[in-house]
Specification:
With about 280 residues, this protein is of the alpha+beta class. About 45% of the residues lie in helices and about 20% in strands. It has helices at about 30-50, 75-80, 120-125, 125-140, 145-165, 170-185, 195-215, 240-250, 260-270, and strands at about 10, 15-20, 60-70, 85, 90-95, 105-115, 220, 230, 235-240, 275.
């Protein structure tokens, strides 16, 4: 395991830091470490966009930090930079390792900090920031299955006000929504995180679109992990979590389109039972 399991949360210099520690590794393990760091960044983005407490207050900045207690080789440094991280506040720390440290000769420990700040809606565009603020101020809390209809309506009203277009619960409406999000996301290079309230509203709208295509589909408030149950004409059901698909879109872009998701999951419901 190139990284220690778990994430440490701390506030430093006005930003919430999600911190992971890099374990010492042999040079041939560098590729595995890069893969692990890439995966942990995705985990951090997903956590930020699904846990409301992390972005409370809304004004807080947020970033991922990776710590190393050994000097990293130049090849790994370049790889971390290619993932968007930059070295910050590299420093030594005094550590006591034996009783002889009482003589004032404590060893100086190396510590490297690699940091990636996440972009908030306000960093990209006034329209996206206004949409997020409108949804955040009015969104209901609680199970998505219970509040999906209200969240989808809230999103549609806020979208019409701030993006001047009408959302329709069909493939064209979902395609227009994702295209707008992708354009806003690409205004500045970086990793975008949205408030969980907006992510839930986007997921509710995606679910509403799927329901329009497969009318017998329902939300199940007893199923927190996959609350949307898509039932096809054959009577078989596919269960899914639209929230994870929205975070996928925001993280991976065109590799994870909501329209592809909606079409694939409805197609699955026509043929066989599955979990996705």
């Amino acid at each position: 395991m190139p990284l220690k399991p778990g994430t440490l949360l701390a506030v430093s210099e006005g930003a919430l830091e999600l911190t992971a520690e890099i374990l010492p590794a042999e040079r041939e393990a560098e590729a595995a470490l890069v893969t692990a760091v890439r995966g942990r960044l995705v985990e951090h983005q997903e956590e930020i966009m699904t846990e409301p407490a992390l972005l409370d207050p809304d004004s807080i900045n947020v970033c991922s930090v990776f710590l190393s207690r050994v000097e990293l080789p130049s090849g790994l440094r370049r790889a971390l930079e290619s993932l968007g991280l930059s070295e910050a506040n590299t420093r030594g720390t005094d550590e006591e390792h034996s009783i002889f440290s009482r003589l004032g000769r404590g060893r100086r420990a190396h510590l490297e900090r690699w940091r990636l700040p996440y972009q908030r809606a306000r960093d990209l565009s006034p329209r996206l920031a206004a949409l997020e603020g409108a949804v955040l101020s009015e969104a209901s809390e609680g199970p998505l299955a219970v509040h999906a209809e209200g969240l989808a309506e809230l999103l549609a009203h806020a979208w019409a006000e701030h993006f001047r277009t009408r959302l329709t619960a069909d493939r064209a409406g979902l395609a227009g929504l994702e295209e707008t999000l992708l354009k806003e996301r690409a205004i500045k290079p970086g990793r975008l995180v949205l408030q969980p309230a907006l992510v839930r509203a986007l997921a509710a709208f995606a679910g509403q679109t799927i329901q329009a295509i497969a009318p017998e589909s329902t939300w199940d408030d007893d199923d927190e992990d996959t609350p949307l149950h898509i039932r096809g004409p054959s009577g078989l059901t596919v269960v899914s979590d639209p929230v994870s698909r929205v975070t996928d879109l925001l993280i991976r872009g065109r590799q994870a389109l909501l329209t592809d998701y909606a079409e694939a999951i409805v197609r699955q419901s026509l043929t066989r039972a599955a979990r996705t």
